[in-house]
Amino acid sequence: MGLLDGKKGIIFGVANERSIAWAIAQALNKEGMELAFSYAGEALESRVRPLAESIGSKLVIPCDVTDDAQIDSVFDTLSKEWGGIDALVHSLAFARKEELKGDFVDTSREGFRIALDVSAYSLVALARRARALMEGRAGSIITLSYYGSVKVIQNYNVMGVAKAALEASVRYLASDLGPKNIRVNAISAGPIKTLAAMGIAGFRSILDQVETKAPLRRNVTQEDVAKTALYLLSGLSSGVTGEVVYVDSGFNIVGL
Ligand code: NAD
Q1: Distance 39 CA to ligand 1 centre (A)
Q2: Any ligand 1 atom below 6 A from CB of 229
Q3: 1 domain residue, yes or no
Q4: Gap from CA of 15 to ligand 1 centroid (Å)
Q5: Is there a catalytic annotation at residue 231?
Q6: Is 3 part of any domain?
Q7: Which of 146, 147, 231, 246 is catalytic?
Q8: Is any atom of ligand 1 closer than 6 Å to the C-beta of 197?
């Protein structure tokens, strides 16, 4: 018997087999959760569909989170096919490459808008639609953040500001949705080599810092993050909401 037998969840943010969202999906599916996947744009469908099908998922739906009509269409499909959902994974972010190098002070108005829209507002947009489908089901929503939300990380720039907005959104959403028994939490993951991470200038040196300075003296893996996601999306964390849980080998606790 699995921890999540009979439960249903939607995963936003799989791009390929290295995506954090994919590790989370596998961990949830192993415990019995039935999953639907969304993908951002046609180019990614050929990557996401085979992964989804490999764990028996039939619902693979396009969704660029900057487009409200596409978001509505995802939730219409979930409502029609399943009636409701128990879990939502928001594991996506975007900033233009030119904003992820050099000085934060040079961030353009448009670059700022895009980063905050895709990486932070999208959680609000998805949570609002999920609310109706989680009614009466003890729902759980998670998102992925990074330490650049609270400390300056070279080259992370506008994405750090977007993650700060994302973490604040988690608290406000947790407060709004808590009375409906829907929980909202974030995982602040340590650096992991994925498609999104490769867009950050000097990413290798961030990995090196964790390896030498974090208490566990190693970088975390997608599977480390997925195990905490399983905790947050299951009844094991039934009393936890509005939190940012660090899965970073303890890097964030180190001062001098
Ligand atoms: P990834 O590249 O595998 O995933 C990023 C996802 O964002 C992709 O699936 C992409 O399609 C999606 N996306 C981008 N723009 C979108 C849009 N407009 N609409 C819908 N989807 C869109 O990389 P990842 O590292 O697995 O990233 C997942 C999350 O984890 C992100 O929020 C990222 O900031 C966060 N995170 C990553 C790390 C790391 O070091 N890899 C560390 C902490 C937090």
Answers
A1: 11
A2: no
A3: no
A4: 8
A5: no
A6: no
A7: 146
A8: yes
Q: With a threshold of 0.85, does the pTM exceed it?
A: yes
67 CA distance to ligand 1 middle (Å): 17
- The verdict on the CB of residue 114 being under 6 Å from ligand 1 is no
**Is the separation of the CB atoms in 9 and 36 below 8 Å?**
yes
> Cα-flanking dihedrals φ and ψ of residue 17, to 5°?
-75, -10
Please tell me the total count of domains within the chain. 1
Q: Is residue 2 included in any domain, yes or no?
A: no
Residue 253 lies in a domain: no
Task: Report mean pLDDT in 10-residue bins for the chain, 256 residues.
Answer: 96 98 98 98 94 97 98 98 98 96 97 98 98 96 98 97 99 98 98 94 94 98 98 98 99 95
Give the span between the Cα atoms of 67 and 64, in whole angstroms: 6
CA nearest to 20, candidates 211, 192, 228: 192
Q: Domain limits at 225?
A: 8-248
Radius of gyration over every alpha carbon of the chain, rounded to an integer in angstroms = 17
